[in-house]
Amino acid sequence: MIFFVRHLQKKKLILLTDFTNLCYIFNMFYFEDFNGTKILKSDFIQDVTAYFTTRGEVCFPVSERIITPVQTHSDHIEVVDLKTEYPETDGLILTNSNDTIYLKFADCTPLIFYDPVNKIGAVSHAGWRGTAAKIGVKTVEKMRVNFGTNPNNIITLIGPAIGLCCYEVSEEVRDKLLSTVQNSTDLYKERNVDLKKINARQLEENGVNKIDICPYCTSCCNDLFYSYRKENGTQNRHFAVLQLH
Fold this sequence. Notes:
This protein is an alpha+beta fold. Helices cover 19% and strands 27% of the residues. It has one domain: CNF1/YfiH-like putative cysteine hydrolases, CATH 3.60.140.10.
């Protein structure tokens, strides 16, 4: 497993990865003084910068810009450039070490990609709509078209998300999701579906084979993560932060 849990302070946990040239942080519920709702505030950048520079245990060097999109459950993916705003965007591709990208989650599936050959990374937000639209596959395709990425080289992390155990959907949604893969027999149970494994299967069927899936269910582990479904539509979010070195 690439994902591991590191104990920082009392009741404070974080998920990290150990890639060379890549820093990916997925914060967990117990950072009580800073959660994804800060994204709506005008002092967001200052707050994030202060947050990561004052906690040396988890800190990586803060880059010149912290980029966050306006997530709308779309399948729209952007390459980070000189723009500061990314409306209606649920995937960002990062190509330089001057920027950091930040996406927020609460049950939806974080998809994190790293191409060690071209040294580029990406984060995509896959709820059921994004999964049905195959946002992960589209992210990989954009990396291939724009930067020559070979899908076989991509290392993929699928982060904490609501699991098969807790994610019951309508038959219509279930069928939409299952129709996106060739073999779906192990991806559902009655009306429950496994978003993490559906995303993994989509990627595998499109040439991405290095995939690591975080075992946490955000609903079962609501003491660690925010869960939109478990918490009746909470506005709180945990978040993913990606930076290249």
